[in-house]
Amino acid sequence: MSALKNKRTLWILCSILLFFLLLSCLYEPLLSNILTLRVEKTLINGEIKYPPFTPLEVPPFGTDIIGFTIFAKIIQGFKYTFFIGLLLSIAQILSSLFLNILILYKVGTTFLLPVFSYFDKLFTLIPKPFLLLLLIGPYSDALLFNTDNVQPEANWMFVMIQLFILFLIGLPNLVKLYHAELAFLFKQDFFLASQTLGSSKFRTVKYSFKPQLTELTLNLFFKILIQNLSLFIYLAYFQLYLGGSLVTQLDASTTYTATISNEWSGLIGQNINRLASTPWTVLTPLAFYGGLIFLLNGIKRSLTGGLQNQSI
C-alpha cells in the first residue's frame, strides 16, 4: 500500500513539474504572442496610470516598475531556473563519483582526498554567499568595464564564470560525503567476504554497493539541487544574475538592473530593493521559488521511499 502511494505521489508531482516545464518551453514560440508582456499605461477609474501596476490593476500578478508583467516573466524564466540548477547539480554529482573512483586507488588516496578535505573544511569556515561574492563580484565589474556595454558577449562569459565557480564550491563536500559512505561500506562484513573471494574495490563498488550508492546519490542530488537554487538567490541579491543583466536608465539619476533571462532568482533580486513599494514583484516569484523547492522535496521523498520499499 505504501509503495502504491509513493508511486501515485511521484507521478502527480512529476506531472506538475513537467507541465510547468512544457509551459515555459512554449513561451517563446507560442505564449509570447498570446500573453500580455508589457503594460506601459492603462486607464483606471477614468485616469491614465503608469507602471508599476498592482495585481488588482493588472491581474494576476501585476507588473514591475517598467511595466513588464510578472506572470509572463515567471512563465518564461522557469525553464532557465530549473535547467541551470539541474545541469549544475548533475555535473557536480558525476564529477564527485568519478573522483571517488580515483580515490579508491593509491594516487587518489594520497593526493586527491587530502586536497578535497582541505577545501571542504575551508568552505565551512567561510559562508558560501560571501565566498561567491568575493569570487564572482570582481569578474562582474571587470567584464562590464572592459566590454564597454557590449552585453551579449559579456553576459555569456559571466554565466560561464558563475557556473564554474558554483561547480567548484559545491564539489569538495560531495566528494567528502561519498568517501565517508564508501569508507563505511568497506568496513561491512559483506565487503570483507567479497574481498576474500578476490573481488576488487572497483568491482565491489560497481555491483555490491549499487543499492546503497543509488539511494545516497538520489538524496545528495536533490540536496545539492536545492542548495544550488538557494545560492542563485544569494547571487541575485548582489545583482549577479544568471543569464546576464541589462541596465535601464529610468531617469537622469535612477537606473534599473534587470535579469535578461527572467530566471526566478533574478526576478527576486532585481526588485528586492523595492519590497516596500512593490511587494508583489518580490513575493510572487519568491512564492513560486518556494513551491519549486517544496515540489523537489516531495519528489525526493517519493523516490527514496520507493527504493526503501523495494529493498524490503
From TrEMBL:
Residue intervals passing through the bilayer: 156-175, 216-237, 280-299
Task: Indicate yes or no for the key word Flavoprotein.
Answer: no
- Xref: PROSITE patterns: PROKAR_LIPOPROTEIN
In the UniProt record, does the keyword Amino-acid biosynthesis occur?
Answer: no
Looking at the record's lineage, which domain of life comes first?
Bacteria
Could you tell me the keywords of this UniProt record? Membrane, Transmembrane, Transmembrane helix
Query: PANTHER family from the xrefs?
Result: OLIGOPEPTIDE ABC TRANSPORTER, PERMEASE PROTEIN, OPPC IN A BINDING PROTEIN-DEPENDENT TRANSPORT SYSTEM
- Protein name per UniProt: Peptide ABC transporter permease
